[in-house]
């Protein structure tokens, strides 16, 4: 598979803003000239069930728009583990919430078990967990520039929640920064 | 020529090249057509701006004889076609001609929703209580006990009161008249054409050939007389013909209200949206 | 080919779903009327147009059922307005009655069918490609119809515009046929300004006395009268003569129907559209549409990376089938592989054109798309045998 193709998933449950995170990242990538295809699985339930937002990113036109195997996986609910885990590439990056996904299967992955939702709660609202996760993903992968994602978040954040969203993004960057060994 | 219509020459509204027409001798639909054309004449409606949309069946065939923009559509659907046409072209005068099978059976859903929407249209339902063109099968308005080719033991299904249905569904204007009284029918159609919302006009017509004959209802002339004596209208209650049946149907304008007209409501909302968009 | 020049200034790319691209394309094409009925997975088109049309001097109406929606669209077009409806399999079945009317009475209109799993209610949220035959042969009687099968959000936008142009030029219903994945996935698309000019139907002209509604010249397409322009014509679903009035005169019926069936032949250069990928030296050519074609495109790359000579032929115009282009594309191929989300509908047409010897299918009907790996594996095997 050509190196330029990257596949990733935001997996969780309905109502977590997974689609919004995926769309924000797609718009940031588009602004950098990347081509992106975004898809999700539709189930009869739109709230409460397993929910996913997938991106396929390429330097040129995306040929097959659906993901085949994930380079990166963000997990915000344990319900998303079962349908997503078997589709990870060897050595894939997994960013999972400690509280919402307390137990994860073993596997050949680069696992980052992080307090995403707790960080969001501390900022004032669990609803920005998706943005914290987005910050972590951008910072860890360098998939797009900070500036690009910040521009999109600034443009798309709901009125009155701009500061919260920007703080969540910054908190995500911070979570992604490896903690110095001495402090651990 | 009728003496009470000195200025009305029906030939001005007909496609004379289509004559002779295909209706059976004694069919009531010709009288209904005459009343419609007379009403259009008296209201001075421009033939170029007149669109007549019809369905399938004997009534559906009438559109071909009218010198206007005419659309002979599919079975039961003329109201749906007319809805699109009238919404796209509010400058046109849209008249629908339908039959009892077309309008109440296969097209029943379209009728109730056309009544509910209250889009400016005039719908003439020519009710002859039978599927005439297909050879005389039972229809939703066939009276109980009548013999038809599909009720050889007599009809056991209750029939529809189309005007009660249209009223209940919300039509802005509902009326009923018999073909026996062409001038009265003309006046009713005129009132319908002038109504700003959806106007439903039921015309009680006769099918001599495949309905009357099968039910021993006599000649065409006798059937028309029966409209007065036996079949119907309560307004003739004091006249000489007795007895009246318990199924007497009221005639004249039965419903008239000023519910908002759908097309105007849509255009008003669109104007507001456009303003908001700029 | 494209009727409309789509070269535009380079705008910013935005994430757009296939259905949103369709709604945007309709507005760009000059569509002024939409009548529909809610059905998954096409409803986003209606929802978008419910907002867009009133702001663009158009009318949106949600009708009481699928049949009425199709009828209203034809009614609006008879009034001279460009009109669209959108549906999915079960609704498409209900619309067939009036699609036949539009074909027979030659009323321009555009119908979107977002294919989902069938038969019957099937799988509303899962992709399928099982309406390939219904889109061509769904209504009774023999009739011509144009079916376009775009495979990406960008292409849906362009093909929606082209659908309206073809409907107007050919006085024919045009179906846009795509699957749930293409409809509901989003892709970064840069939409430019709407094309400046559109095709318009040929209008009746000259004196009323000499105008014949179904008389034609060399292009086989009659000029259409618009209510209010003084022609006062008759339109019917019955067989009719040049004057538009019903006839059962065998000679008149045969003349008009023969003309109807062959009218698209005069416009194949405008109608036909396809894409070929590395077919020039191919030992194996994959023939596919929609999401299956997207998978096949990746499969071609996978096979080529292994040194296997595999190509792709993708009909963008599905009906009339671009048969000459297919024959050209498979010239060097010893095997033709047709992956599709049904039990062989596209393959049936390919076999009709190429014979059965070298054609085989990959078929999936469980609601999942066919992935690139599966297609590549079989294509690679066939290329080795070839």
Describe the structure.
The complex is a heterotrimer of chains A (184), B (278) and C (386). By secondary structure, chain A is an alpha/beta fold. Chain A has one domain (6-176): Pyruvate-ferredoxin oxidoreductase, PFOR, domain III (Pyruvate-ferredoxin Oxidoreductase, domain 3, 3-Layer(aba) Sandwich). Chain A contains six helices and six strands, in the order βαβββαββαααα. In chain A, helix 3 (116-123) packs across helix 4 (129-141). Chain A is globular and about 40 Å long. The termini of chain A are far apart. The relative contact order of chain A is 0.17. Chain B has helices at 29-42, 78-88, 100-106, 108-117, 162-169, 182-194, 208-212, 220-231, 262-277, and strands spanning 50-54, 69-72, 93-99, 121-127, 130-131, 137-138, 173-178, 198-204, 252-256. Chain B is globular. With 278 residues, chain B is of the alpha/beta class. Chain B has one domain (25-277): Thiamin diphosphate (ThDP)-binding fold, Pyr/PP domains (Rossmann fold). In chain B, the strands form two sheets. Chain B has a seven-stranded mixed β-sheet, with helices on both faces. Chain B has a two-stranded antiparallel sheet with strand order 5-6. By secondary structure, chain C is α/β, with parallel strands linked by helices. Chain C has three domains: 14-189, Thiamin diphosphate (ThDP)-binding fold, Pyr/PP domains (Rossmann fold), CATH 3.40.50; 208-268, no CATH class; 275-385, Rossmann fold. In chain C, the strands form three sheets. In chain C, strands 2, 3, 4, 5, 6, 7, 8 and 14 form an eight-stranded mixed β-sheet that branches. Chain C has a five-stranded mixed β-sheet with strand order 11-13-12-15-16, sandwiched between helices. Chain C is globular. Mean pLDDT of chain C is 95; it is low at 1-9. Classes of the chains: A alpha/beta (184), B alpha/beta (278), C alpha/beta (386).
- CATH H-level name of chain A... which superfamily? Pyruvate-ferredoxin oxidoreductase, PFOR, domain III
SSE class of chain A: alpha/beta
Which second-level CATH architecture of chain A applies? 3-Layer(aba) Sandwich
What spatial order of strands do you see in the largest sheet of chain A? 2-3-1-4-5-6
Label the overall shape of chain C: globular
The residue-averaged pLDDT of chain C reads 95
The share of residues in extended strands of chain A comes to 15-25%
Portion of residues in helices of chain C? Answer: 25-40%
Instruction: Kindly identify the CATH topology of the largest domain in chain C.
Output: Rossmann fold
Residue stretches of chain C low in confidence (pLDDT < 50, at least 5 long) are 1-9
Structure annotation, total helices of chain C: 13
For the terminal residues of chain C, how far apart are their CA atoms? 33 Å
Q: What top-tier CATH class of chain A fits best?
A: Alpha Beta
Rg of chain C: 21 Å
- The ordered string of helix (H) and strand (E) elements of chain A is EHEEEHEEHHHH
Number of helical stretches of at least 4 residues of chain A: 6
Quaternary state reads heterotrimer
> Any idea what the radius of gyration of chain A is?
15 Å
CATH class of the largest domain in chain C: Alpha Beta
| CATH architecture type of the largest domain in chain C | 3-Layer(aba) Sandwich
The coarse silhouette of chain A is: globular
């Amino acid at each position: 598979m050509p190196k330029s193709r990257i596949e990733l998933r935001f997996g969780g449950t309905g109502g977590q803003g997974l689609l919004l995170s995926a769309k924000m990242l797609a718009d940031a990538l588009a602004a950098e000239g990347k081509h992106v295809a975004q898809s999700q699985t539709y189930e009869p339930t739109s709230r409460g069930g397993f929910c996913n937002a997938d991106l396929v990113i390429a330097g040129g036109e995306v040929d097959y728009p659906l993901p085949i195997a994930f380079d990166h996986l963000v997990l915000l609910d344990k319900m998303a583990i079962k349908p997503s885990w078997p589709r990870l590439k060897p050595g894939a990056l997994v960013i999972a919430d400690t509280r919402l996904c307390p137990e994860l299967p073993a596997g050949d992955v680069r696992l980052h078990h992080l307090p995403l939702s707790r960080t969001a709660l501390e900022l004032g609202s669990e609803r920005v967990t998706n943005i914290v996760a987005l910050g972590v993903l951008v910072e860890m992968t360098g998939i797009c520039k900070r500036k690009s994602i910040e521009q999109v978040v600034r443009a798309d954040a709901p009125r009155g929640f701009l500061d919260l969203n920007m703080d969540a993004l910054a908190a995500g960057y911070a979570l992604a920064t490896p903690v110095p060994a001495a402090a651990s | 020529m009728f003496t009470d219509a000195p200025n009305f020459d029906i030939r001005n509204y007909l496609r004379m090249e289509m004559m002779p027409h295909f209706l059976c001798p004694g069919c009531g639909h010709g009288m209904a057509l005459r009343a419609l054309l007379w009403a259009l004449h008296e209201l001075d409606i421009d033939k170029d701006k007149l669109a007549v949309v019809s369905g399938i069946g004997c009534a559906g065939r009438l559109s071909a004889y009218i010198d206007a923009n005419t659309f002979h559509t599919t079975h039961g659907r003329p109201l749906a076609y007319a809805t699109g046409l009238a919404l796209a072209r509010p400058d046109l005068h849209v008249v629908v001609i339908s039959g009892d099978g077309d309008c109440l059976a296969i097209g029943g859903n379209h009728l109730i929703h056309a009544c509910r929407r209250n889009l400016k249209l005039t719908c003439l339902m020519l009710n002859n209580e039978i599927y005439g063109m297909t050879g005389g099968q039972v229809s939703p308005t066939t009276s109980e006990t009548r013999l038809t080719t599909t009720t050889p033991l007599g009809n056991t299904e209750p029939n529809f009161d189309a005007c009660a249905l249209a009223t209940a569904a919300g039509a802005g204007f509902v009326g009923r008249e018999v073909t026996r009284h062409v001038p009265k029918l003309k006046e009713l159609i005129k009132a319908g054409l002038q109504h700003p919302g959806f106007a439903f006009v039921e015309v009680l017509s006769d099918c001599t050939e495949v309905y009357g004959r099968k039910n021993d209802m006599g000649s065409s002339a006798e059937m028309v007389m029966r409209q007065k004596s036996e079949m119907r209208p309560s307004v003739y209650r004091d006249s000489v013909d007795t007895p009246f049946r318990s199924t007497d149907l009221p005639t004249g304008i039965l419903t008239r209200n000023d519910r908002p007209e759908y097309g105007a409501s849509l255009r008003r909302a669109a104007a507001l949206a456009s303003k908001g968009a700029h | 080919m494209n009727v409309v020049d789509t070269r535009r200034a380079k705008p910013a790319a935005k994430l757009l779903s296939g259905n949103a691209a369709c709604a945007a394309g309709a507005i760009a094409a000059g569509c002024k009327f939409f009548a529909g009925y809610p059905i998954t997975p096409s409803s986003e088109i209606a929802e978008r147009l419910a907002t867009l049309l009133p702001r663009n001097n158009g009318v949106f109406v949600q009708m009481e059922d699928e049949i009425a929606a199709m009828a209203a669209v034809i009614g609006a077009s008879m009034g001279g307005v460009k009109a669209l409806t959108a549906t999915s399999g079960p609704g498409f079945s209900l619309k067939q009655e009036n699609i036949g009317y539009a074909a027979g009475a030659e009323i321009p209109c555009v119908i979107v069918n977002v294919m989902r799993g069938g038969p019957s209610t099937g799988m509303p949220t899962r992709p399928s490609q099982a309406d390939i035959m219904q889109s061509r042969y769904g209504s009774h009687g023999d009739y011509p119809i144009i079916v376009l099968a775009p495979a990406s959000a960008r292409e849906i936008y362009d093909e929606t515009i082209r659908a309206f142009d073809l409907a107007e030029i050919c006085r024919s219903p045009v179906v846009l046929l795509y699957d749930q994945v293409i409809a509901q996935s989003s892709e970064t698309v840069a939409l430019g300004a709407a094309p400046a000019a559109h095709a318009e139907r040929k209008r009746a002209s000259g004196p009323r006395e000499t105008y014949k509604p179904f008389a034609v010249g060399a292009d086989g397409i009659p000029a259409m009268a618009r209510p209010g322009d003084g022609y006062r014509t008759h339109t019917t679903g019955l067989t009719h003569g040049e004057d538009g009035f019903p006839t059962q005169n065998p000679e008149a019926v045969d003349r008009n129907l023969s003309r109807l069936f062959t009218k698209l032949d005069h416009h194949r250069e405008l109608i036909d559209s396809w894409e070929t990928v590395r077919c020039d030296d191919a030992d194996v050519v994959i023939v596919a549409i929609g999401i299956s074609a997207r998978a096949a495109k990746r499969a071609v790359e996978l096979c080529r990376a292994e040194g296997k000579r595999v190509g792709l032929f993708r009909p963008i115009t599905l009906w009339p089938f671009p048969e000459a282009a297919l024959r050209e594309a498979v010239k060097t191929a010893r095997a033709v592989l047709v992956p599709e989300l049904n039990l062989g509908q596209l393959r049936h047409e390919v076999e009709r054109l190429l014979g059965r010897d070298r054609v085989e299918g990959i078929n999936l009907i469980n609601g999942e798309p066919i992935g690139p790996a599966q297609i590549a594996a079989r294509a690679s095997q066939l290329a080795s045998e070839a």
